[in-house]
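Dear colleague,

Thank you for sharing your sequence with our group. We've completed the structure prediction you requested, and as agreed, I am returning the results in plain text so they can be pasted directly into your records. Please verify that the sequence below matches your submission; if there's any discrepancy, let me know and we will rerun it promptly.
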Amino acid sequence: MKSYFLRNIKLLMIITISFLVFFTLSNDEDEFLEKLNNNNELIEKYNKFKKMGVNKSIIFPENIIENVIDTAISFIGTPNKHGGNDKESIDASGLVYVSITKNSKIVFPRTAQEMARYGKIITNTSKLIRGDLVFFYDTYEVNRIITSVGIYLGDGKFIHSSSSKGVTISEIDDPYYWKDKFFYGTRIFK
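Please find the predicted structure tokens below.
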């Protein structure tokens, strides 16, 4: 009788946990689809992206956050160039990649879309903390959903490489551009 009771409790716990995980993922997915405004092309890009996995585990030590940010800040004013990754020219994912890999030996992807697969997803900009990565979609025409990345600095600001200004600091809730392009953030530092 006791083993029957324990087995039923375990089964109930598994069902409850599965429901919570499914409900949480469904809510996030609904929020992502809502951001895409029923744009079939963007939804298709998102679905392809999602199939390859998100929320993948990666943990960088929290004590390198300020070094990563300092490295990124040292690039302010550097012109933007697709594929660039040095002080001559750098793109958004290059800025994040160089800033992280200069301060850590952990292997990290080079492109924004691949970076977006790692870390705990944060869908609300008000829940971002200093050092979170922030990802944007549809910032230029390309065959992937995630098109830009930056590092959140706190107080509503993030550093990134802009096609018009090069490496700069912008407001994440800028109503004229970034607010509508924000997809989600990820927390990779613990």
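Summary note from our side: Confidence is low (pLDDT under 50) at residues 16-27.

Kind regards,
the structure core
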